[in-house]
Design goal:
GO terms for molecular function: 3-keto-5-aminohexanoate cleavage activity; metal ion binding. The chain has 311 residues and is α/β, with parallel strands linked by helices. The chain contains eleven helices and 16 strands.
Length: 311
């Protein structure tokens, strides 16, 4: 793994997993998403990872018009790297998932490295009732849902966004096989170093949140990519802070945000994305490490620059 002297903090502001019932602090409207993104940047996040939601009821939406209500505000008020999802939300087609990134031509997007089961349905047991009708169905549907990311899908994204827009990728790897899939595309020269490899732990259907797995994913990535990658870690729910702290100790970058966990600590809800960014920043600096600025993150990841986007 290429050793970056600075730790890049990514903040995933809203995502498409959690629903409005689960936290009153989850940003829903474009205004809330913009404000949360700006505050996360002020707290120390270099990269802001973004999904959009229908402002009426908080359901995930791929609509570029909704994205364009917050993307320009974030650009005008920060120098953060904007990273737009290509994963979207459950049930969206690939064309829907790509609609906003193709419109916005961002410096970065996420790119999932394989099809997988993606189980959210265990969260049903935690709530007696839901604020909106769609929420329960959204969680239940994940019992019989395959998150589709075929080789053809991945090739299409690499061509349309990578070649077509100069966009680089946060390669989301939910299991060991996803690392090998990424290595396949590297061998074919369809992706170019430095790779930003986001290893993800604790999603039902992906690799479990065990410390041994974190180190195993790191070892396999080192074997496959050598000095051609930057390693980052995110973990779901209660595993978030312990795992990203382990990543920082072991030379990695970190991702936090309300997409990944609604909590700040045991039994304590995060009141904002910035709360989580401040906490991991404090941990990083306590470890005598330095947090990368957006300018430094751009250099490390060789991004095209915020002046070359279309929002």
């Amino acid at each position: 793994m290429a050793q970056a002297r600075k730790v890049i903090i990514t903040c995933a502001v809203t995502g498409s997993i959690h629903t409005p019932t689960m936290s009153e602090h989850l940003p829903i409207t474009p205004d809330e998403i913009a404000k949360e993104s700006i505050a996360a940047w002020e707290a120390g996040a270099s990269i802001i990872h973004l999904h959009a939601r229908d402002p009426k009821d908080g359901r995930p939406t791929p609509d570029p018009e909704v994205f364009m209500q917050f993307l320009p505000r974030i650009k005008q008020n920060t120098d953060a790297v904007v990273n737009i999802t290509t994963g979207g939300g459950h049930g969206m087609t690939l064309q829907e998932r790509l609609a906003a990134p193709l419109r916005a031509s961002p410096e970065m997007t996420s790119l999932n490295m394989g099809s997988m089961n993606f189980g959210l349905y265990p969260m049903l047991d935690r709530y007696k009732s839901f604020k909106y009708e769609w929420e329960q169905k959204h969680l239940e549907n994940s019992r019989d849902f395959i998150f589709r990311n075929t080789f053809k899908d991945i090739e299409y994204v690499l061509k349309e966004l990578g070649e077509g827009h100069g966009t680089r990728f946060e390669f989301e790897c939910y299991d060991v096989g996803h690392l090998y899939t990424l290595a396949h595309f590297l061998d074919r020269k369809l992706v170019k170093p430095p790779l930003f490899v986001q290893t993800i732990f604790g999603i039902l259907g992906g690799i479990g949140a065990d410390p041994e797995n974190l180190m195993h994913m790191r070892r396999i990535a080192d074997k496959l990519f050598g000095d051609d990658y930057q390693w980052s870690v995110l973990a779901a729910g209660r595993h978030q802070m312990p795992f990203v702290s382990m990543a920082a100790i072991n030379g990695g970058n970190v991702r936090v945000g309300l997409e990944d966990s609604l909590y700040l600590g045991k039994g304590e809800m995060a009141k904002s994305n910035a709360d989580q960014v401040r906490k991991i920043r404090h941990i990083i600096e306590t470890l005598s490490l330095e947090v990368a600025t957006p300018k430094e993150a751009r250099q490390i990841l060789q991004l095209k620059g915020g002046d070359k986007v279309t929002f």
